[in-house]
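Working notes for the structural subgroup meeting. M.R. asked for a predicted model of this chain before we commit to crystallization trials. I am recording the input and output together here so anyone reviewing the notebook later can reproduce the run.

Input as submitted:
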Amino acid sequence: MVDINKEQLRGARVQLANELSAMEEQDRTLMKKITEHRKKLDAIDCLLEPYGSENGRERTATRPIDAQTKGSNIFTPVHVYWPAILASLFELGGSASADDVVEQVGRRLNSVLTDADKEILPSGAEVRWRNRVQWQRFNMTKRGLLRRDSPRGRWEITEEGRRWLEKLKTKSQINNNQHNE
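Returned structure, recorded in C-alpha cell form:
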C-alpha cells in the first residue's frame, strides 16, 4: 500500500496554485497589451484609410471577436462607430437630437458591442459605449463629417459625411459582390 504524505500533497497543491495564479496574471497582462495594440492599429488604419482597407485586406475591426475574448476587456474599435453614427443620422433625416442618435447607434451595434462596452465607466456616470459614441462625434466633427456648429444637443451630418458614408456603402457592395462570385 502506498503511503500518501498529505503534507507533501498540500505543499505541491499550494505551489501549483501559486504558479497557476502567476500564469493567469501574465495572461491578463498580455491580453491587455494585445487589446491596446489592436486599438492603436485600428485607430491608425482608420486615419490612414477611412473608407476601408488598402490592398483588399480588411481592417481588424471587421474580424469577429472570438468566444474566448468576448468577455474580457476588449472594446469595439472606435472607428466601427463612425458608419453607425452617419447611417443613423442619415436615417433620422440628417439631423437629430444627440439622444436619438445615440439610441439608434446602440440598436445598430447591439450585436457588435462587447460585454466590456456595456460596462459602467469607473466614474459611474455612463455606460462605456455611449461615452465612446459621444467622443467619436467629437472626432468626426474634427474630420468634417459632422457639423461643428450644430445647436447644442443636436447632431448634423455634413456633405462630406454623406460622401464618406456613400463611399463606404459602395466599397461594401463591391466587396460583397466579389465574395459572392
